[in-house]
Amino acid sequence: MDFDRSNEELEKNLVETDRQMKQQQSEAEKKNNILPQAKEEELERKKVFGFTLRPSTRQILKEKANEQNYQSVSKFLEDLIRNL
Length: 84
Description:
mainly alpha, 3 helices, elongated
């Protein structure tokens, strides 16, 4: 076995490992962060549309909207769809 590695080689390996770990962490954060955050946007006229959901699905939407500081489930759902 070779135990006589230079400091430069070790440092190079550490830097590369650190870069790879940061890249993997960034990719994982992007995958986990699909839920939009509430923010102000320019106003656009809206129309009323009706569709059906299971009550349990509606409850999940409501909980997720509250977690992301949305005042309405409708706005949360709109932002979620626009971010797809």
